[in-house]
Design goal:
OB fold (Dihydrolipoamide Acetyltransferase, E2P), Chloramphenicol Acetyltransferase, Mitochondrial carrier fold, six-stranded mixed beta sheet
């Protein structure tokens, strides 16, 4: 582990932990102080003992890696520093020459801020510091004068700490010559490295109102399951009871998230933070005291992964090689003394700022009465007594009891602790193939977050691109050959000039909005569920993405197809599409359109072209999300982080939408024409014939009684090459369009469709990703206002 110190100013330094560590600022600690010529010393820099963690108050000097007179360059290791948790290399980030070592190898408990060395800019200045002393550098900044001891008038029983303090003054015999037992015979002196955790736990007891809840966990099924899994692992892993309990704790914390919280002070205000991930601190006994390495994201990894992490972190904790981020910042702690058969139960002190800790006793066999058909019999049950300590400031008694109930239920069933095991470990193996620099624990958002983010993103994209969708629809629904609506710019200009903004470019806008948010809301919920289920079942990712998009669109189509029919009918009321244009628009409003279609053609007409819509949209959504997921995965590889930035987010979404839009354009052409033809010609005979005066009551001529013509094409405007789609078969319709118009007919409006699907998809998915991050920040940040 390497520590890098960057000089900021006299009273501030930035500590960077490791090559990719996160920088922390400790405002009141000066790691470097500059001194200029005073007395006979040239300009120099005093290097001070830095704070390697928020709780560190002192450290030990290990081996110096540079000697006096050696040059230093940025990144050189200057000295090894031992803290209460680990040993780290002190990497220096300035150029210069080491002029004086003020603290020799082996010096213990050097206070943070105390001078440890002197740096000069020129090698010629080194000799001037031969007589430089610690006092010249200002002395030990953290040192404090010893407190005078008060003599006690009467003897009293001493605590271990008090006895250790008085040990050097203990007498070997009394006035009669009889030997007295010294304090060192009875007590051992507290190791300095354990002082910091001890002080923190003492503070926790004094400041956090603890309460305790105990229960007996039935682990008979769990033990049998453990034995079975270990026997079938082929030596790949060896699960412990503690591994199962860690998983059970994580699942219970997700079910009762109020326990997975911490008490914080932010800007002078007391708040409670509810964490979205479960990071379990595991208490490990080491030669220097108790250390709590963290199993991160325990709720989303399997038992084998938990077991491997616990073993690896425990070994490095005992070797003193943990990085600070590996033992700081957990959300809940487990302390297990079950390996000691004498420990039936115990209580543990909360590790602040966490709100809870679980103390685990040993496993015992307990006689349990069981009701059978033959009466009551006694069976032996393996049980563990656990005691949870909760901070009453954060977790109310009822909430603590609810959490214990969930934990007990999970442990007894033994199922929940491994229900995700096989599939999540297989998923982890797939993720292990990614580069190490990529964060492998990509969080799955809560379903409601995904649904609301998708709904808002999809609706925003539809709002922005509705005018382009109108142009695309006009080009595809144009019954003329050659078409009246040609290029994108010509169509925009023609529609705006002849019909304006509201009736023309944004015709059918209200109808589109009626189905936009509900449709995308349902789509994203279904998509996330299908995708997770398939991936967890070890189905190929590409197949999972395709199938999930397909099924999600099928679920959403029930909502959006009627809105699509209304929108398309209202969009096709233009001069070159509507036979009643000269006598006014067919539909005065969205409500008028829905009422008229239902009255004239029947309610089923709102689902006209449903098959064509499904045939178009299901492949589109499948391709759209398959392209997007694969492109985004590639972008993560390229960026080396799941946070790929706005540019790559937009590019992956836009290209995925455009590609899917182009490939499904022929299906879109057929869908548009099917949705705008009269769906039930047999009812047309009941429609009055005054077309000019009442276009809503339009009656088809008898010569057309057996046909199903495009509603937007009158007899005068349909040329010989314009197909009349009198079939419900998509394949037949594709053939008909191809016979009469060729490949160009299949790809009518492909330009606007490519732009529309690209920009709409880009808007939707970029907003989706950023809204997910925002909602995650809101829910993981402090909530519940101020206490």
């Amino acid at each position: 582990m390497a520590l890098v110190v960057f000089p900021v100013h006299r009273n501030r330094s930035v500590l960077e932990l490791g090559p990719r560590g996160r920088a922390r600022t400790f405002p009141s600690l000066a790691a470097l102080s500059r001194f200029y010529a005073s007395n006979s010393f040239p300009p120099h820099t005093v290097i001070s003992m830095p704070a390697l963690s928020p709780t560190m108050t002192a450290g030990n000097i290990g081996a110096w890696q540079k000697n006096v007179g050696d040059s230093l360059s940025p990144g050189d290791v200057l000295v090894e520093i031992e803290t209460d948790k680990a040993q780290m290399d002190f990497e220096f980030q300035e150029e210069g020459v080491l002029a004086k070592i003020l603290k020799d190898t082996g010096e213990k408990e050097v206070p943070v801020g105390s001078p440890i060395a002197v740096l000069v800019e020129e090698g010629g200045d080194v000799s001037a510091f031969e007589s430089f002393t610690l006092a010249d550098a200002g002395g030990d900044k953290g040192a404090s004068a010893p407190t005078p001891k008060e003599e006690s008038a009467a003897p009293s029983e001493a605590s271990p700490a008090a006895a250790a303090d008085s040990a050097p003054e203990a007498q070997e015999s009394d006035s009669t010559g009889a030997r007295l037992e010294t304090s060192l015979d009875r007590w051992r002196v507290q190791k300095p490295q354990a002082a910091s955790p001890a002080a923190r736990l003492k503070e926790s007891v004094n400041e956090n109102p603890h309460y305790f809840v105990s229960t007996a966990l039935s682990v008979s099924k769990l033990l049998k399951l453990r034995q079975s899994l270990n026997a079938s692992s082929g030596g790949a892993y060896k699960l412990s009871v503690n591994d199962f309990l860690i998983k059970a704790i994580a699942v219970a914390l997700k079910r009762v998230p109020a326990v997975n919280s911490s008490w914080r002070e932010v800007d002078g205000q007391i708040v409670i933070r509810e964490h979205q991930t479960v990071d379990i601190s595991v208490a490990v006994a080491t030669p220097v005291g108790l250390v709590t390495p963290i199993v991160k994201n325990a709720e989303s990894i399997g038992l084998a992964s938990i077991s491997a992490q616990v073993k690896e972190l425990g070994k490095r904790a005992r070797d003193g090689k943990l990085k600070p981020e590996e033992y700081q910042g957990g959300t809940f702690t487990i302390s297990n003394l079950g390996m000691n058969a004498a420990v039936e139960r115990f209580t543990a002190v909360i590790n602040p700022p966490q709100a809870g800790i679980l103390a685990v006793g040993t496993t015992s066999k307990v006689a349990v009465p069981v009701e059978t058909e033959d009466g009551t019999v006694t069976e032996w049950d393996d049980q563990i007594i656990v005691t949870a300590s909760f901070d009453h400031k954060v977790v109310d008694g009822a909430v603590g009891g609810e959490w214990i109930r969930e934990l007990k239920k999970d442990a007894a069933a033994a199922a929940i602790t491994i229900s995700y095991e096989a599939r999540e470990d297989r998923a982890q193996q797939r993720m292990d193939a990614l580069p190490e620099e990529v964060d492998l624990e990509l969080k799955r958002p809560p379903y409601l977050h995904a649904m609301f983010a998708g709904g808002i993103g999809g609706t925003t994209g539809d709002i922005l691109m509705h005018s382009l969708d109108t142009v695309k629809t006009r080009q595809q629904g144009d019954p003329h050959w050659p078409p009246k609506y040609t290029t994108l710019s010509d169509s925009y200009s023609k529609i705006f000039r002849q019909e304006g903004f509201r009736r023309g470019l944004y015709g059918g806008f209200t109808a589109a909005m009626l189905g936009s948010f509900p449709g995308t809301f349902i789509f994203f919920g279904t998509y996330e569920w299908c995708k997770r289920t398939m991936l967890d079942a070890d189905i190929n990712p590409s197949v999972s993405y395709l199938a999930s998009g397909f099924l999600a669109d099928l679920a959403a189509s029930v909502v959006y197809v009627p809105s699509e029919v209304l929108k398309t009918r209202l969009q096709l009321q233009g001069r070159y599409n509507n036979p009643f244009f000269h006598s006014g628009y067919n539909y005065k409003s969205t409500w008028d359109a829905a009422r008229t279609i239902a009255r004239v053609e029947g309610f089923g007409a709102l689902y006209s072209g449903y098959k064509a819509t499904i045939v178009r949209d299901l492949p589109f959504s499948a391709l759209q999300f398959a392209f997007y997921e694969q492109e985004r995965k590639l972008a993560i590889h390229l960026a080396g982080t799941p946070d790929i930035g706005f540019g790559l987010e937009a590019l992956t979404a836009l290209t995925a939408g455009s590609a899917a839009g182009v490939l499904t354009c022929p299906l879109d052409v057929v869908k548009t024409r099917m949705q705008t033809q009269i769906s039930k010609p047999d009812k047309a005979t009941n429609i009055p014939s005054q077309i000019a005066s009442d276009p809503k009551a339009a009656k088809l001529p008898k010569s057309q009684a057996g046909q199903s013509r495009l509603l937007h094409s009158g007899p005068r405007t349909v040329p010989t090459k314009a197909p009349t789609l009198d079939t419900s078969s998509v394949i037949t319709a594709l053939r008909l369009v191809y016979r009469t118009e060729g490949v160009a007919g299949w790809f009518r409006g492909v330009g606007p469709r490519a732009v529309w699907t690209g920009v709409q998809t880009g808007t939707m998915l970029v907003l989706y990703q950023y809204l997910l991050k925002y909602m995650d920040t809101l829910s993981s940040n402090e909530y519940s206002a101020i206490i």
